[in-house]
Amino acid sequence: EEGWLEGEVAAARREARGVKFNKRRARFLSEAQKVKQGAEGVLYWMSRDQRVQDNWALIYAQSLALEAEVSLHVCFFLEQQLPDATVREYSFIVKGLEEAAKECDALGLQFHLLPGSAGEALPRFVEDWGLGAVVTDFSPLRVSLQQVEEVQKGLPSDVPFMQVDAHNVVPCWVASDKQEYSARTIRGKITKLLPEFLTQFPLVDKHPHCASKPAEVVDWSQVLSGLKLDHSVGEVDWAQPGASAGIAMLESFIDERLKDYAPLRNNPNSEALSQLSPWVHFGHLSAQRAVLQVQRGRSGRAESIPAFVEEAVVRRELADNFCYYNKKYDQVEGASDWARKTLQDHAKDPGPYTYTREQLEKAQTHDKLWNAAQYQMIVEGKMHGFLRMYWAKKILEWTSSPEEALSIAIYLNDRYELDGRDPNGYVGCMWSICGVHDQGWQERAIFGKVRYMNYAGCTRKFNVQEFERRYCPK
Ligand code: FAD
C-alpha cells in the first residue's frame, strides 16, 4: 500500500519522465567517450549509491544504453574479506541490495552481485560480458578513489568510463575546485547552482533491450552468512534497510517531525530530526529526493525547510568537499595551521580524567550524559546529532593527545553508527576535535582555541537527566 508521500514520490517521478540528464553531472575518466560499437550492454557499477530510482548515475547509464540500443547492467562488488565489518553495517547493505536487485529485475535490468574488489574484478567482468561503457557513482573517500583508479587502469582503452556524482545535489567538483574554509564560503557557491541541479529526477524506466545471457542467480538468503562479520555489533530494530523504508522514514519526517525541526533539532529528548542519515549514507535514499519532498511539504513551520536544506545540502556537501580536496581528512595533520598549533601548544596540559579506548567504548566514564550518548550509539546505532559534538569533544579532553582522541572517535563512530564510514563522520570528528570549518575561540586548557563544550552548557539547553535516565542502564 502506498502512503501519501510514496504516492507523491511516485507521482513526482512519473511527472518527471521527460526531464533530461544534465551532462554537467558526469565526467569522463577515460579517453574513450563513445559507447563501444557492437557492445552487448552498458554497465552501472553501483558503489556508494545503492538504489535504483533517483540515482543520477543509473539514469545516465540508461540514457547511454537506450541511445546505443543495448542492454543495461548493474553490478555491486561485495568483498569477502572485510576488516572491521559488523553485522549491523552489512545486513543493512545486503538487504538494501536485495531490494535494488528486485527492482532491477522488474525493470529488465540485469543485477550482478560480484565477489572480490572492483579494482581487480571489474575490468575482467566487462570483457567477459562484452560491455561497451561503464558508469559509476562518486565518493571522496580514499578506498573509493583508489578503486576507481584501479578500474580506470584496468579497463580496455576503447571502453569509456564515466563518473556521476549521484550523492550530492551539486556535483562535488562543480560546486568548488578547492577545499572550502567553512559553510560560509561554500553556501553561496552551492545556492547559486541549485536552480540548475536541484531538479526532479527522470524515471529509470522499463528497459527495452534484453541481455543475451542471464546473470548468475543470487541466493540472497545465503549472502550475509557467507561474509565474515563481527556479530558483537548487531542489527537495530528501528531502522529497516532499503529504498522503500528510506522513503517511509522521509514520509514520517514530513508528516510528524519537520514542523519541529528548526526549533527542536538540538534537543536530544525531542523527536525532531529526520533520522534519514543511515539511508542517505548507504545511498538507499537520495538527499536530493529528501529536499525536493520537504520543499513540497504541507505541514511544517516555514523556517524548518531552510534549516533542513542547510544540513542536508550545505553541511553534507561541505563534508564531501573537505574529504575530496584534503587527503588527510581523518588526521590531525589535515586540520588548519591555527588549530594544529593551538592543539600542539596545549598537548601537555593535564586533563581532569584520562580514559582508555576500552573504558570509553564500554561507557565507563564519570559523566552520565556522555555514557548515555555512548549507549544510545551502541544500542540504536545512531547518536543524536547535538550530542555527537559533546561526545567527541570530551574524548579530546579525556585522552592523552588529539591524535589519540581523533582515532578513538573515528573508531567508535565507524564501528557503531549506522551512518558511520561517511565523509560527514570524518568531518564531524575533525570539527569537534580539530576545529575544521570552525573558528578559533577563547583559549583554554587542552582545547586551546578549539571550541569547548561542557556539561553545564548542556543542562542549559535541554533536560540532561531525562536523557540520562532514558539511556543509562539502571
Ligand atoms: P538531520 O538533522 O535530520 O539531517 C538531515 C541530513 O543532513 C543528515 O541525514 C545528514 O546527511 C545531513 N547532516 C546533518 N547534520 C550534518 C552535519 N553536521 N554535517 C554534515 N551533514 C549533516 N553524519 C553522518 O551522516 N555520519 C556520521 O558518521 C556522522 N558522524 C558525526 C560525528 C560527529 C562527532 C559529529 C559532530 C557529527 C557527525 N555527523 C555524522 C553529522 C550529523 O550529526 C548527522 O548527520 C546527523 O546527526 C544525522 O541524523 P539525522 O539524519 O536525523 O539528521
TrEMBL record:
Reaction catalyzed: cyclobutadipyrimidine (in DNA) = 2 pyrimidine residues (in DNA)
E.C. code: 4.1.99.3
Keyword DNA-binding found: yes
Parts of the chain that traverse the membrane: none
One function term, GO molecular function aspect: DNA binding
Family under the similarity heading: Belongs to the DNA photolyase class-2 family.
Protein name: Deoxyribodipyrimidine photo-lyase
Natural source organism: Albula goreensis
Highest classification ranks of the organism: Eukaryota, Metazoa, Chordata, Craniata, Vertebrata
Residues of the full protein shown: 90 to 563 of 565
